[in-house]
Structures are given as structure tokens and as C-alpha cells.
Write a structure and sequence with these properties.
The chain is of the alpha/beta class and 180 residues long. It has helices at residues 14-31, 47-54, 107-117, and strands at residues 9-12, 37-43, 61-68, 83-85, 95-103, 123-131, 144-148, 154-155, 171-173. The strands form 2 sheets. Strands 4-3-2-5-6-7 form a 6-stranded mixed sheet, with helices on both faces. It has a 3-stranded antiparallel sheet with strand order 1-9-8. The protein starts with 8 loop residues before the first strand and ends in a 7-residue tail after the last strand. Bound molecules: inosinic acid and magnesium ion. Inosinic acid is lined by residues 45, 71, 77, 100-109, 153-155, 159-160.
Length: 180
């Protein structure tokens, strides 16, 4: 049976991703040695990255998740960010790492950072698996980045196109002529 993903070009293999996630995990483990970290994942795209990253981290850590309004069904953002699921627990005086799949225009992370900072965490850093700096509309950078990409649309390893392809183990390129 020929699956749709068989036609998608692979940009990063599962092995390359695992290697990079292990490197980021080691860096975080070093930076937060002896501390307790709260990993805050942005649903749904960051779920797979967070679950792998968490297992590459040695200091104590707990998880929380937030969800923001949909990016839109296709490849284009509405530019409007709205919180649809808040944190379960307070992050006041805690060390927080916001875990996101892609830092693209920066609007999502910029909005979430502002929101989390209102709770006065002890520290707040950002881990993004992918960074597309050329697309930035809001000046914001991640502290931990997996891979830096040009302006390409990707799917797999948690990332979707119209909610599909999140389960692909590789990160694949979505052709620009895909239907919206
Ligand atoms: P930003 O607010 O433009 O930075 O949007 C970031 C969000 O847009 C990410 O969390 C993804 O959900 C989504 N996104 C941006 N680029 C891509 C992509 O290439 N593939 C899938 N989702 C993307
Ligand atoms: Mg997302």
C-alpha cells in the first residue's frame, strides 16, 4: 500500500532528530543541573518533541501544556493568537522552559512568553525544534534550537498540515502547491 507520506521528501530523518534532541537535552541538563524544570509544551505540535526532550533531560522536571488558537488549516496563519488551554499549575518562582515545535513569525511564542511572564517565573527560556528566522514578524529568539530552516513548510514529528502527518517519524517537506 502506498501511503501519502511515501511521496513526501524527507528533510530530517528520525535518527538526525534523535541526535539533535539528545544534544539539546544534554545542554539543558547542564544549564539546569540541580534545579527543577517545568516544561510547558504548546499543543499539539510540540507534544512529540517535548516527550523526547524530557527523556533526554536529567534534572527533575514536570510537564504542563498550553494550547493556542489554530494556526489555520493550511500553511497561512491568521496572525491572531488566542489561549484556548491555560496552564494547570502555577509557575510562580519556578524555572520554566516553553517547548514549541516551530518558531516562525514569532507571534505565538511572543504572546505566550508575555502571558507566562505575568506569573513571575524564576526564569523562562524557549526551546524550539525548528526556527525559521526569515519569517519573523516579532523580534524573539529561542534559547535552544534544533534546526534552522529557510522559508519551507514542513510536516511530521508532531507538525501538521490541516492536522495530518503529525505521526510521521521524519520531518518532511510539504510541497508549496498542496491544497489549502
Ligand atoms: P508563529 O506564531 O508564526 O511563530 O507560528 C508558529 C506555529 O505555526 C507553530 O507552532 C506551528 O504550529 C505553525 N507552523 C509554522 N510553520 C509551520 C510549518 O512549516 N509546518 C507546520 N506548522 C507550522
Ligand atoms: Mg504549534
Amino acid at each position: 500500500m502506498k501511503t501519502p507520506q511515501a511521496r513526501l521528501e524527507v528533510l530530517y530523518t528520525a535518527e538526525q532528530i534523535a541526535e539533535r534532541v539528545a544534544e539539546i537535552g544534554a545542554k539543558i541538563s547542564h544549564d539546569y543541573a540541580g534545579e527543577h524544570i517545568i516544561l510547558v509544551g504548546v499543543l499539539k505540535g510540540a507534544a512529540i518533541f517535548l516527550s523526547d526532550l524530557a527523556r533526554a533531560i536529567t534534572p527533575d522536571c514536570t510537564f504542563d501544556f498550553v494550547a493556542v488558537s489554530s494556526y489555520g488549516r493550511g500553511m497561512h496563519s491568521s496572525g491572531v493568537v488566542k489561549l484556548i488551554k491555560d496552564l494547570d499549575h502555577s509557575i510562580e518562582r519556578r524555572h520554566v522552559i516553553l517547548v514549541e515545535d516551530i518558531l516562525d513569525t514569532g507571534l505565538t511564542i511572543g504572546y505566550l512568553r508575555g502571558l507566562l511572564l505575568q506569573q513571575k517565573p524564576a526564569s523562562l527560556r524557549i526551546a524550539a525544534l525548528l526556527d525559521k528566522p526569515a519569517r519573523r514578524l516579532q523580534k524573539i529568539e529561542a534559547d535552544y534550537v534544533g534546526f534552522t530552516l529557510p522559508n519551507l513548510f514542513v510536516v511530521g514529528y508532531g507538525m501538521d498540515y490541516a492536522e495530518k502527518f503529525r505521526n510521521l517519524p521524519n520531518i518532511c517537506l510539504m510541497p508549496p502547491d498542496a491544497p489549502e
